[in-house]
Amino acid sequence: MKIAVFGTGTVGRALAGAFSRLGHEVAVGTRNPAETAARTGRGAMGGPPFAEWLAGHGDIRLDTFAAAAERSELVVNATNGAASLEALAAAGAANLAGKILVDVSNPLDFSQGMPPSLNPVNTESLGERIQASFPRARVVKTLNTMNAGLMVDPARLAGGDHTVFLSGDDAGAKSVVAGLLRELGHRDIIDLGDMTTARGAEMLLPLWLRLYGALGTPDFNIKVVRGG
C-alpha cells in the first residue's frame, strides 16, 4: 500500500520504518519538510536527529502533510494529540476523503502539569472529533494503548500475547487495518465497535501512565483474558 505517516517523533518514525520494512511505499508527512530535514538535535525521547534517521531509511519520502496524503491510500495520524486536528487540516479534507485514516494519537492535556489529563474525555474522544471534522475519511482508532516499540514489534513482549483494540464506523476500513496489525505481528485484535468506543481506548491512558510510573518501563501491555 501507499501509506502516509503524519508525525516525525518516536511513534511516527517507528510506524514509518516498520511499514517500509514490510514492503509498503511510505511517506512521512510534516508541516515544513525542509525545516524537518535540517533538524540536528536529538528527538524528545533521545532518538537520533531526524536527518540522521531519514538518511538511514532511504526508501521513505519526506513530504508536506498535503502531498503525503494526496499520494497515499492510507494515512496514519501519529502526531501529538493536541495538534492532530491542525495537522489533518493542513493535509486537506479533499486529500483525506475516502481514505482510511488510522488514528494512534491520544488527547493528552499538559495544561495543568504532570501527569497529563485527557481532553476530550468521557462524552467524546479525539477519534470522534477527527471523524466529525473529516466526515469523508474512514477513521480507525488503534495502537494508542501501547508504546511505539510494541506497536511495531509486539513479539518483544510475551511472544506477542497481548491485546490491541480497534474502533471505527467503517467495517471495511477496520478489516484493512486489522490486516496491517497482523502484518506487524499482532495476534489478539479486539474490535470494540463504532467510533464512540474510542473513548474507552483513550481512557486507558491515565492507567497506562501510572503503570509506567509504577513499573519504570514502557514495555508492558494489557492482555484481555476471556472466560469460557
What is the rounded Rg? 17 Å
Strand content: 15-25%
The helix-strand sequence is: EHEHHEHEHHEEEHEHEHEHH
Number of helices, counting only DSSP H or I runs of 4 residues or more: 11
The residue fraction in helices comes out at: 25-40%
Average pLDDT for all residues: 95
Number of E strands: 10
Name the features.
228 residues; alpha/beta; 8-stranded mixed sheet; two-stranded antiparallel sheet; 11 helices; 10 strands; 37% helix; 19% strand; globular
What does this structure look like?
This protein is 37% helix and 19% strand. The chain is an alpha/beta fold. It has an 8-stranded mixed β-sheet with strand order 3-2-1-4-5-8-9-10, with helices on both faces. Strands 6-7 form a two-stranded antiparallel sheet. Helix 1 links the parallel strand 1 (2-6) and strand 2. It is globular, with a radius of gyration of 17 Å. The protein starts with a strand and ends in a 13-residue tail after the last helix.
Give the secondary structure arrangement, pairings included:
Blueprint: E1 2-6, H1 10-21, E2 25-30, H2 33-37, H3 50-55, E3 61-64, H4 65-70, E4 74-77, H5 84-91, H6 93-96, E5 100-103, E6 108-109, E7 117-118, H7 126-133, E8 138-142, H8 148-152, E9 163-168, H9 171-184, E10 188-193, H10 198-202, H11 205-215
Parallel strand pairs: 1-2, 1-4, 2-3, 4-5, 5-8, 9-10
Antiparallel strand pairs: 6-7, 8-9
